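Final report, results section. Input specification for complex C-07:
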Amino acid sequence: MKYLCLAYGTSGGLEALTAAERAALLAELEAREAALQATGAVRASMSLGWEPATLRPRGGETVVTDGPYLETKEQVGGLVVLEARDLNDAVRVASLHPGVHLGPGVELRAVEHALPPGPFEEGPRWLLLAYGQREPFERMDAAEREAVFARCGELDQAMRATGRVVEGTGLGWDAVSLRAREGKVVVTDGPFLETKDLVGGLVTVTARDRDEALRLASMHPAAQIGEALGWAVELRAVAAGCALKA
Amino acid sequence: MFAALLRLLGDFDLAEEALHDAFAAALERWPREGPPGNPVAWLVSAGRFKAIDALRRRARFDAAQGALAERVARGPAPTEADEVPDDRLRLILACCHPALGPEAQVALTLREVCALTTEEIARAFLVAPSTLAQRIVRAKARLRDEQAALDVPPREALGPRLDAVLRVVYLVFNEGYLATAGDALARADLAGEAVRLARLVVELAPEPEALGLLGLLLLHEARRDARADAAGELVLLEDQDRARWDRDRIAEGCALVERALRSRRFGPYTLQGAIAAVHAEAPSAAQTDWAQVVGLYGLLARVEPTPVVALNHAVAVAMRDGPAAGLAPIEALLRRDLADYAPAHAARADLCRRLGRTAEARASYARALALVRQGPQRRFLERRLAALG
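Structure output:
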C-alpha cells in the first residue's frame, strides 16, 4: 500500500533565529531526514514553494485568486509518498518525518488510485492540490456520483492531452495526524487541520511559467466543476532541487 | 522471528522496523553469499544489529534513543537455541496484556499475531482505519510503558493471563460468527483467524479451557454452511439441514471437549463446547437430548452466572418441558437485566407463538427487531413477524 504524508508548515519564522540556532536546526533536520530515508519506505518526496494561487469553479466559470485556498496559519509545505504494509506501518515510518518534530505536524492518507503514467514534456514542475469536502461527496447518490466521475474522466483526459501531466493521485478521506508533544509523537484520528476542506487529489504538471501553470490548473476537474462539493485547486510551485523521484 | 525481536528490543515499532531491515539485508546478501545455515537466527541477529544502528543514528537528535541503543547492545544476544514457541506465547501474552482494554487486545492480537493489516481489521469491525490505527498506536505505547510485560517468563505469566488470551480468541470468533452490524452474516475470515489462534494457544499451552474453547469454535464452525440458506438468509439451529454440517470438524471438536471434560479442571468454554457437542450429535432438533442440555446450562450458570446463560437455560427448559415452562423465567429476565437484549425478546416471541398467544408474540418480535442492526437477523425477525399474519 502507498500512503501520502502531507507535511504542514508555516512560512517564515527562520528569520527570528540566530545563525547558530539556524545551523543547529538545519543539522537536526538533516539527521531526521536521513533517519526517515534509512527506513527504505520513502518512494517519493517533494517540497513546495509558498506563493499559491487558487482556482474555484463558480457558476460554470473558473475564478482565479492569488493566495492559498485555506485561510489557515499552517499550509501544506511538503509531500512524501511512503510504501508500507498497512496504516500502522505507515504511522511508524511517518513518526520519523522531520515535520512531526520540527514543524507543526503531518497528515497521513491512503493513496487510493493513480492516473496511469503517460508521456509528458519536461520542464519546471508545479503541483495542483485539489480540495474537496467529504460530507457533500458522500451524500451524493450513485447516479450523481457516476455523472461526476464521468465528467471528471473527460476533463482529466483533456488535461493529459496537453502532454504536461507528470502524474496524478487520488487520496482516501480517512486521515491520521501526527504531532510531537513534549518530545513524544501523538497520533490522532482525523485530518491535521480542523477544516471541512481536505486535499482529495494531487496532479503534478510541467509549465514554463506561472501563467502556463495557471492555464493547466484551470483544466483540472476541481477548477471546473464540483462547486457544491467544495472543490477548488491550489497551484503551488515545486521547490527547485526537490523534484519528484518516484 | 518478530516475537524474538520483540523480546530482544522490547518495542513493537522497533521490532517491526528491525524485521523489515533484516529482510532487506537478506535480499541483498543471501543471493551473493548464499543463505546461512540457520536463516531464522541470522535474520533475528541481523534485525537486532540493524535496530542498534538505527537507534544510534537517531541519538544525534534524541539522546533517549542512544540510551536505548546501548541497553539493547548490552542486553542478551540471540542464540540459535532461542525457544521459538515461548516467543510466540510471549507475543500473544503481550497483545492480551491486562493493561489494555478488550478492543485494544483484539486489534493488537489480530495485527501482530494473525498478521492482518490495519485496514482488514478495520473493515471487519466496521470502523475507520484511522480509528483502528490510533487504537493500535495507543496499545503499543501502553506496552512500551509496561516494559515488564514483555520480560515475564511466558510460562509463569500464562496461568493468570490465559483467561484474557482465551477471551480475545472468543471475541474474535464471535465477531466473525455473528457480526454485530452490517450485512455479512458470517465473516468467515475472522472466524477462521480465531480458530487458527485457538489452535496456536492449544499447541503452546494445552490447558483444559484452551482445549474446550478450540472444541467450541470447531463445533460452531462445523455448522457455518448450514446457518445461511442460498440467499444468505439466517437458518435457525432447529431448521438447519444437518447433512450440511461438517462431520470432520464435529469429530475433532467433540474429542477436544471430551479431553477437557476428563481433566475435571474445565470452565465455561468447555461447558459451552459440551452443549454444542450435544446439538452436533443429535440427528434432529426434536431428538436432541434436551435434559442433558438443561443440565449443562445449569452447570454453566454456576461457573458463569450471567443473564445470557440464564436465558439459554430457560430456552432449553422450554424445549424439554414445553414452551410454558420457559416463559416465566424469560419474562423475569426481560424485566431485569435483558430489557434491551434482542435475543431475549425473540425467545419470548417464539414461546408465545408456540403457545398461540399471537398478539404478545407480535409485540416481542417488534421489540427485538427494534434492537437488531444486522441485515440477515433483521430479515429473519421480519419473516417471523409476517408469518404471524
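Residues 241-246 of chain A have pLDDT under 50 and may be disordered. Helices of chain A lie at 19-37, 87-94, 98-102, 134-139, 142-160, 210-217, 221-224. This concludes the modelling results for the funded period.
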